[in-house]
Amino acid sequence: MSPLLRCASLLSLLIILTPCVLAALEALQQEDTLQAAAAFALDDACLPGNENSEKGACDLSLRQLRLAVHSQQLSQHTQNERVGSDDPTSEIDVVEPGVAAWKQCGGKDYVGPTKCHFPSVYTCTLETEYWSSCKPGSVDAATHSEDHTSLPVPVHRAGTESLPVHLAAPTVAHTLPLGHPWASEVYPKHKGFTLWLVEEFDKPLDLDKDPIWTWSDGGLKEGQVRFVKEQIKFQDGKMKIEVRANHGHQQTCSNAQSEHVPHKPLVAGEIRTRFNMFRYGRYEVRMKAPSVQPHNPNVDGNFVSTMFVFRDASFKHWREIDVEVTGRAPGAISTNILTADYQAKWKPSMQETDYPISYQHMNVRAEFHDYAFEWLPGVIRWYVDGKLVREKRNDRLAVPDKSAKIMMNLWIYHDAKPFVPFGGKHLDKDRFPMYAEYDWFRFYKWDGDHHYPPADMSSKSLTGDDMYLTSNNPCDGIPQIGEVLKYGKKLKPCKATCR
């Protein structure tokens, strides 16, 4: 047989076998995952009658089982990297070459040379206010060495009270971020941050069973909408939140509220993470705000379309960082920070708002735009299409330092008298249905935060304060913890049932 015919025959055989090979590889991958998942199912958490097990913990899809296995692997990796101690309760931090390390050079107060040296352990070069490039060894050794492959060096806090050391835990290398990323996508990198969670919204999320995301059943007194799951739609490779007339959603009580919310004329949607486990990092979304009238994005109306972080125990610690797009103008974008303690109702003193962009050439209803904010200790920076539009530091209102949930929603303000034109003056021009569209969401964890989110994405490591009234959704299986403190009185959350 000629070499040419031999090559052609081999090529034909390869074409025939390729689907089989790929199927076999996928089967092996699923088998490994299912074997690990079977071990996970034998854990005590899955035994019948275990009161501490989360609802549906043992009734997971293959995708969710992969996340469960991945979480266990992350947790085991972190435990293996940590160094043992005689005191099991002591905190031990690990420095890794090239990783952000908050305050290991004095942090934002460091004004000395570009290099600092923690005795006999490592040298750090201050790259930015919140990012240092670190490697083991002395200043002299570091000057003559470019080796960044050394193993992490353990650093104990004991005896270092005089030094402002607060170091990052090891950053685990992810093959892919959590959520639902594209395997072939090359995602942007940001120095000092690690891509942790991606949602492409190209396939529907099961918001009843997804281990990270759920839906809200809330309702704002100031708004005209009740949030319901059905208004969060996944279509055309995007997540769409729809607002329309309410034809029958009568539930009047939310499990984290101490009072009833009256019937609302409209229904819309709110997607949120299940727990207060996100803190310092970079939050990004690509979204398009609603047109208040079909095919006419130039008409001003009333709506609030959002991406934000929110600690929703407003009766204890209210913390919020917002990107809000409103119906008051084609380019109306607002950036907000809210903080209050033991305050049940909103007051102007608890909020700082800035309108960084309202350009005539920019129509956030007709086009998709990228919105982001970096939340770091003592500073927040907001970006639109990659451009820095606002920086907020500790002043009248302190930058939040408590963990929170990630949330996205769409709502309409009410028309009570006197009318307060939040969201836009022209409520009468709204036509329904109305849609906010989300192309993707990304969360980059700041490498200097070694508490949030937990490495295994488990709520077991969250504090009681983190878990306080953690959910306002009676259908998601998360139990309520604590009582509502309102006007100095302790009230139990009102009871609600799944529709």
TrEMBL record:
<dbReference type="InterPro" id="IPR050546">
    <property type="entry name" value="Glycosyl_Hydrlase_16"/>
</dbReference>
<feature type="domain" description="CBM1">
    <location>
        <begin position="97"/>
        <end position="135"/>
    </location>
</feature>
<keyword id="KW-0732">Signal</keyword>
<dbReference type="Pfam" id="PF00722">
    <property type="entry name" value="Glyco_hydro_16"/>
</dbReference>
<comment type="similarity">
    <text>Belongs to the glycosyl hydrolase 16 family.</text>
</comment>
<dbReference type="InterPro" id="IPR000254">
    <property type="entry name" value="CBD"/>
</dbReference>
<dbReference type="GO" id="GO:0004553">
    <property type="term" value="F:hydrolase activity, hydrolyzing O-glycosyl compounds"/>
</dbReference>
<dbReference type="GO" id="GO:0030248">
    <property type="term" value="F:cellulose binding"/>
</dbReference>
<dbReference type="GO" id="GO:0005975">
    <property type="term" value="P:carbohydrate metabolic process"/>
</dbReference>
<protein>
    <recommendedName>
        <fullName>GH16 domain-containing protein</fullName>
    </recommendedName>
</protein>
<dbReference type="InterPro" id="IPR000757">
    <property type="entry name" value="Beta-glucanase-like"/>
</dbReference>
<feature type="domain" description="GH16">
    <location>
        <begin position="180"/>
        <end position="449"/>
    </location>
</feature>
<dbReference type="GO" id="GO:0005576">
    <property type="term" value="C:extracellular region"/>
</dbReference>
<dbReference type="Pfam" id="PF00734">
    <property type="entry name" value="CBM_1"/>
</dbReference>
<feature type="signal peptide">
    <location>
        <begin position="1"/>
        <end position="23"/>
    </location>
</feature>
<dbReference type="InterPro" id="IPR013320">
    <property type="entry name" value="ConA-like_dom_sf"/>
</dbReference>
<dbReference type="InterPro" id="IPR035971">
    <property type="entry name" value="CBD_sf"/>
</dbReference>
